[in-house]
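Thread title: Can someone regenerate the structure for this chain?

I was given the following input by a collaborator and told the matching structure tokens would be attached. They weren't. Posting the sequence so someone can regenerate them.
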Amino acid sequence: MANQIEKVLWSIAFPGFGQILNGKLVKGVIFLGLEFLINVKANLNQAIVFSFIGDIDQAILITNYQWVMFYPCIYSFAIWDAFRDAGGGKAAYAYLPCVFSAYFGTLGVVYSTVVVVFGTLLGPILLGLIGLAGGAVLGGIVKTLINSRTNSKLQKITTAE
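Best answer:
Regenerated them for you:
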């Protein structure tokens, strides 16, 4: 389990590192290349800086939305892929937190110019991060509910026999 967590944390830090640590060099280089390409084309680093210093309007202006919408999906998939290649993800529906994370992260980016919280826009970075985290939590809950329901049905079948 520690090996899987290490790969996940490296993938969170930089998509592709987890794959490289797993010995999947080609896949790791592809993820690194995609991360770099999307980062540059979307002006992601500049948007992060403006978001973190509170200049959300400037972050929205410099963000290239046609590129940044790819980032949550690549990011989430790289994390899932590194975890799976490290031996994780064998449980039923283990992929759901990453799928929900990608989906809600992308929704956060898409709606970042219209969602207002406490009288201010959150912007593509903050609302995207909230979507990623919220999606992971929601996906984990859905996975747990599905698995518990499946397990309870299996127990009823086993007990009836």
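The chain has a mean pLDDT of 93.
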